[in-house]
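DOMAIN: structural biology
WANTED: fold as tokens
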Amino acid sequence: MLAVGLTFTAGWMPPAYCRVVTSAQSFRYYFRDLKQADATLSPLQRFVFSLVLANEHARTGSQPQS
């Protein structure tokens, strides 16, 4: 039931909304990854770098590396 609902919702969502969700997920991934990788970055630096990386991800359409 859940899979059917998600499939229906994914087909119904406008592309702009999907891009926003994807960008937010990319931002969260990069922010968390930068926090784990380097303790010397301030939260503001991680925020800026995460925005830059998420923007690059959105432009190229590439997936974040796990």
In short: The mean pLDDT is 75. The chain has three helices and no strands. Residues 14-60 form one domain. The helical segments are 2-12, 15-37, 43-60.
